[in-house]
Structure formats: C-alpha cells, structure tokens
Fold this sequence. Notes:
The protein is an alpha+beta fold. It has helices at residues 53-60, 100-110, 114-121, 145-165, 177-181, 201-216, 230-236, 238-251, 265-288, and strands at residues 9-16, 22-30, 37-48, 62-78, 81-97, 127-137, 186-191, 222-227, 297-299, 313-317.
Amino acid sequence: YASKPKSNSPFKLYAKTLRHSSIDIKGTVKPFDEKVSFTADGDLKGFDLRAATPATQKAIGHIIKSGQMDAKLELLAIDGILNSNVSLSLYKFHIEPMSKEAAADLDAEFGMPLNQTLTLLRDKDDSIHLDIPITGDINNPDFDPMHAIVKATSKAATVTLITFFTPYGLIYAGGNIAFDLATALNFDPLDFKPGEAKLDDVNKEQLNGLTGLLNEKPQVHLTLCGTTNQADLFMLYPDLKEEQQTDKDKDKDKDSPEKEIILSKEHKAALKKLAIERQVNSKNYLIDVSRITHDRLILCEPTPLAEEDALSGVEINI
C-alpha cells in the first residue's frame, strides 16, 4: 500500500492479556498518506488501570491505586483531524497524587477539583460512566494527546454532572458549573414563610427530590444552611417594622438613603435561632422520613441576616 498512500488498509486486532483484559478492534487506516486517516470501532474489556500508572505518573504525576475499565471505542481521523468518541465505564477507580503540587497542577488543567468531581460522578456501585469526545489536529506539532484527553474528560464530566444533577435543582448559569465545583454545587434553596421554621408541603417535596439524589449518589454529602431576611425580622418584631415605615414616611420627600436597620444582640439571637431551627428541621425530615443517615447531612453555623433581598429559608449545597 506504500505505492498507493490514499488506499485504505483494513486491520483487525484481538488480544488478551495475562490479567484477563481483552481488546477487540477493527477498521481501516491510511498509514502512508501525508496526513493520516483512519476509522475503527472496538471494545476494551476488563482493563486493569493499575497497569497505566507508569504513564499517569509521567504525564500527570498521579498513581492509580485501583480500577478496572471497559471502553467502547469509536475512532475517526480524516486528514489528521481527530473526531473520535470513547465511552468509558470505570469500576472502583481511585487515583492519588504523588505530591500536593501534582494535585494542584492537575486540578488546574482539569478545570475543577479532580477528587470532588470523581465523588460526584460515582454511581451507587462505585462506577463512573463517561462519553468522551476527543478532537484535535494530530499533525500539529503542539498537539499533546494527554492534554487533549484531560480536557475532553473535563468537558465530559461537566456535561455528565449537569445532566444528572439539574433535575434535582442544580443551579448553574451558562455552563459555569466548573466555577461552582471549586466551591460547592448549589441547589434550589428551601423558601420559608417569614418567621416560620416549620416545613411546608413545598419544602417537603423538594427534600423528597433530594432524597433520590442521595440514594443514587451514596458518597454525596449535603450541607444545609439556615438563613433569614428582613421579612423574618419584621415578623418577629412587628414594632420594628412600624418604626421603619415611620422613618420612610418622614424621609419620603428627601433624597437621603433608606435608614439601615441596626440589629441588637436580641435581634441577632432571635434570627440565628430561627435559622438553626430551619436547618435542623430540614435535616430531621431527611433522617426521619427519607431515612438518610445523619452523617451525610452537614449543618452550618448560620449568620443572622436582615437584608431585604436575602433568603428566608435553607441553602442547600454539596
């Protein structure tokens, strides 16, 4: 075929390793063309990922502690332009950095914290499933296969997380989930009536939905954080509302800004107590009704707020 570089050469590969993994792939390739083209489909079964540790040590400074992989391969390159897809299933996959610097470097390249991402991706059987499109120009001297794989995996993880978590009330904007992952995944908060700490039917319905998430992702922990706002303060202290309204009436013909409410120790204590009751009631519901274990539900130390635009309820995040 060297005399006919544009000709397709068929190939087929089937092999088994001593560790019982197998690869079965077939397709065509133009190996002698100026710009390589190929198309192939195949399956990789039971690959022991520990065998890849020398490569991951060199490329990303990480050691694969355990893991087995199945993969469906759909490989395509036309004139050196990759447009391939790899469907991965990872079982009991655990990876560790060789140093703090290596962990930070990979997190930066990955675009989000790797270990937290893996935790969120794991199913209840400790498996991870990803569809990874791999694209790029292999003729480009700057093309780095490992960099392409890391970036493709990061994008695939983002899409997978958005697809899975959105039905449970995930809050994200324009794909900014990577930014949220650096801090927390935020979900629709529970809204409470002013001055109330008792769960209503809407609150319970939201928590029931999150129960499904917690059952599907056993490694996930939720943080529940009670919050308060100005409406809560006025419900607890009606006289304060009247004072505020009186001040507004006095200043309505002036250009002076609205008078700021100064919270006393009593006000702060009452608002904090309300916030704590809200988060505790939410946690108790998930424990008593949804049968979620208490150690997966984390409470915060609330900050009493009295801003008009603050949330009156419970913030929920991972």
